[in-house]
Design a protein that fits this description.
Flavocytochrome C3, Chain A, domain 1, alpha+beta, single chain, 18 helices, 558 residues
């Protein structure tokens, strides 16, 4: 996969640049002229923020936008193997790490390449390009090599923390069971972040924080990306990227407009890195990139706070088996102990559209329970807990921690309204109706009565859940509810890239010197199927992008 000794001539040829672009390549160092504009329509429509400045505030070989897992790997390889100077622009005010830092840290270890390739074709229904699968496999097979080289802590496990390996192992009569393992990391992504960040510092990779409102600077004649215009704090700056720009901006989990536009269902709520607001989507659209996989997510279901001051999803559930789930109309729809879906695709179970309300009837789902679910212990994830990963971890600096984790007795969350409370079932229904007027109390009461009867009978005649008297709710209250939404991890859509991580336009032409990696344009299609795939995606395409970009000649070379 390595493209050694890549010359300027072969780079331009491989980028499928037009003859006119090749003719003008020698003039890349200067600003575009009126003659350039007349020769190329792009110059006439180019926005000022994408134009080449007369003077640059800074320059480097490679600019990486986003300091998550993919940005980390791209910058490490660009500096270490490519001998290039690298500057990273990170949106967060301090530190970084993105979702990769606050997730469970697992990454894919391929055990059978041939079956893995067939598996990718199977779970994506043929929508993943063969050349992309081949490139992924060739690089992913080097994961442990690079992990050992950079002193990463890991242990290869046969069972993923979140479930089966891989997600759809059962396809083709179980042909794909055991074709991959995962690297299990003690301390989750936080451990990996600090290990690699130390290596980044050793290599002299510069990271600039509080960088936002970025725009790619593009030569209007050749279409090459030559730098980035951005704002740091309140000061507008430009930085020249002599070899190229690698976009590792993450997803758009915290951009309601983009989620509602592109995802298959909505609302979709996430926990995680709050600076993932889809800035990169605007950036690549400005320079003519093609988007792909915009409806793709890696996600299960999670409780949404419904709180504008804490606007994110949380893993939470009643600490008792006495509960049932209802849709927006107050009706059960599943065996609550077998919610369906794979570990990272549980949101699929909420894809139900009800024409009687012209809307999704399972967004949200309401979990109904009684005092036992409160008294059983903290309902949500906590600092120092066994699954301490997310936007509340103790590892995060105070400036970027979203909250302090769930309270021991659940009372803070009740007071905030994250957990609804009603003295009677009707009181609870009215609390729900204040948020969602589709709830029908008569339906909820009928569901409650039926569920209680199933518990008495020891048999769930509707959904075959194992029920007994222990699952029964109190007949006198109080009652509680939390709202469950599709969401948790990250979106995966972004710019289309080729096997060298180069960003392409709608015609399939490379936009020269522009790369993408990580959740910003994940190569998986149709559904998420590769366990440990997000961290593996960062490693694969981050390394490929950093390596390929570093081999280019500087566009302003004499």
């Amino acid at each position: 996969m390595e493209s050694k000794g890549l010359s300027r001539r072969s780079f331009l040829k491989g980028s499928v640049v037009t003859g006119a672009a090749l003719a003008g390549a020698a003039a890349l160092a200067g600003c575009s002229t009126s003659a350039d504009a007349a020769a190329n329509p792009l110059a006439e429509i180019q926005k000022p923020e994408n134009a080449i400045p007369e003077n640059w505030d800074a320059e480097t070989d490679i600019v990486v936008v986003g300091y998550g897992g993919a940005g980390m790997w791209a910058s490490l390889i660009g500096a270490d193997e490519g001998g290039s100077s690298v500057t990273v622009l990170e949106k967060a005010p301090v530190e970084g790490g993105g979702n990769s830092r606050i997730n469970n840290g697992e990454w894919t270890v391929i055990k059978d390449s041939d079956k893995f390739k067939a598996y990718c074709t199977a779970f994506s229904q043929g929508q993943m390009e063969e050349k992309m699968i081949d490139a992924y496999i060739a690089e992913a097979e080097r994961h442990t090599e690079y992990a050992d080289k950079y002193g990463m802590t890991y242990e290869v496990a046969e069972q993923a923390l979140a479930g089966t390996i891989p997600e759809y192992w059962f396809l083709d009569d179980g042909a794909y069971a055991g074709i991959i393992g995962v690297a299990d990391v003690e301390g989750f992504g936080m451990t990996t972040f600090h290990e690699l960040d130390a290596k980044r510092e050793e290599l002299g990779v510069d990271v600039q924080f509080d960088c936002h409102d970025e725009h790619l600077i593009q030569n209007p004649t050749t279409r090459e990306i030559v730098g980035v215009r951005y704002t740091q704090g309140s000061e507008e700056k430009t930085i020249k990227a002599k070899k190229g720009v690698i976009l590792t901006c993450g997803g758009f989990e915290f951009n309601e407009e983009l989620k509602n536009k592109y995802l298959k269902i909505h609302p979709f709520k996430f926990e995680g890195w709050e600076w993932n607001t889809g800035d990169g989507i605007r950036m690549v659209e400005e320079v003519g990139a093609k988007l792909w996989h915009m409806d793709m997510v890696i996600s299960t279901t999670a409780m949404w706070t419904r709180d504008p001051e804490y606007d994110f999803a949380i893993f939470a559930s009643p600490q008792s088996d006495a509960y049932f789930n209802v849709n927006r109309l107050g009706k059960r729809f599943q065996n609550e102990s077998k919610t369906g879906g794979t570990a990272h695709n549980g949101w699929h179970t909420l894809m139900s559209f009800d024409d009687s309300i012209a809307d999704y009837d399972r967004i949200p789902v309401w979990t109904i329970f009684d005092q036992k679910g409160i008294d059983g212990g903290p309902m949500g994830t906590q600092q120092g807990g066994s699954f301490e990963c997310g936007n509340y971890t103790t590892d995060l600096p105070d400036e970027i921690r979203a909250w302090d984790g769930w309270s021991d007795d659940n009372q803070v969350e009740i007071e905030r309204g994250w957990v609804l409370k009603g003295d009677t079932l009707e009181d609870l229904a009215n609390k729900i109706i204040e948020f969602d007027d589709k709830m029908v109390y008569d339906n909820l009461k009928a569901t409650f009565d039926e569920y209680q009867g199933f518990c008495d009978a020891g048999k769930d005649a509707r959904f075959d859940r194992e029920l007994s008297a222990e699952n029964k709710l109190s007949e006198s209250g109080p009652y509680y509810a939390i709202s469950i939404y599709p969401g948790s991890c990250s979106t995966l859509g972004g710019p289309k890239k080729n096997e060298f991580a180069q960003v392409e336009d709608p015609a399939g032409n490379v936009i020269p010197r522009l790369y993408a990696a990580g959740c910003f344009g994940n190569f998986q299609a149709y559904t998420y199927g590769i366990t440990g795939g997000n961290n593996s995606e960062n490693m694969v395409w981050g390394r490929i992008a950093g390596r390929h970009c570093a081999q280019l000649e500087s566009w302003d070379a004499e």
